[in-house]
Amino acid sequence: MDKKNETTPPGAGPKPLLDGLQTALDASIAAAYRVFGAYRAPAGLLDVCTACCMNAALEREMRRNPLRTLTTRHFYEYNDSAKSAVQPADEIKYLLPRLLELLVQGARLHHSTELYLDRVGRCEPGAFSARERQALQDVALAHFALGLEQWAEPDQGVFQNDDAFTVLLMWDHAGVDLAPLLDHWLACDSDSSALHYVEASYWGFVLNGQQIGGAFSKDRPRYREAVEHWLTAPEHQDRFTARLLQMMDRRPAGGWLPPGTQECGCRSTLTDRIDAVFDTIAR
Fold this sequence. Notes:
Layout: H1 15-35, H2 56-64, H3 72-80, H4 89-104, H5 118-121, H6 130-148, H7 164-173, H8 179-187, H9 191-204, H10 221-232, H11 234-249, H12 270-281
């Protein structure tokens, strides 16, 4: 692939686009508070273990303090606690707006990103109304759309340095329909979204024998099948092949790494990864 040097910041999206996406995300969180606002805090113990998993004072605070005052620590211990296989839907739906708000602010809500919203997906089938499912879907799409445009500042972006497939798997654990998120990604024209495609595809697909891997996807065959189909559809591969060619034609002089980022040098450079993904999808 030909590479021409330019001086534009690597992967930086236009500010009006980023501002618009942030506004849409903020609006989706506000809508979630409205949609789930009728639910009340449980009167008794939450679905946690206070004997060894969660601090008892934090558990009480989650029921007694105003919802919007709950912190990352509350939800981290709540998510990390032993829990029932099937989750109490009313409890989850009461807490969900604040959980989503912290998530989109970049909070660390579990030791593994993929499980931030695992409790949501463990509610009984049919527990969420169509309106409630749509509110969750809207947050997922707004969050994913913004993250795809934030390559230039990964530490400050909503993906928090996770790759896009990790984020998709997180939303899959919540029961979100991934098709609108994948359709949006396919339609994106930005260098940032193409660079996210390279990183996610290389680490999560190319290096895994062109199969979707990962410890938290082993028991989620529908997730793996959906993403693999999206990656291997010929028309999708043609689209990303063309986008990578266009992107590399305007390669910045300093490369595509975000400003101040250093290659770790342990396995591959970003240029190596771009070339490997291109060779995988080009026909």
